[in-house]
Amino acid sequence: MYGIGGGLSESAASLPDFYLSLAKQTTPAIEVGASKEVTVIISEGKELVIRELAGEAL
Prior knowledge:
By secondary structure, the chain is mostly helical. The protein has one domain (1-53). 43% of the residues lie in helices and 0% in strands. It has one helix and no strands. The protein has one helix at 2-26.
């Protein structure tokens, strides 16, 4: 019983690391330090629809 409980505990502890790794792979992120000059190049167009949130004006 102790071995099963220890195994479940350890796998539950590593589960957040697994999901964090998946999130890092699917979300494009560019880390830039403060006060660094950057150039952004947009290679294809996409229409952006801005919607109001319930009860909030933009």
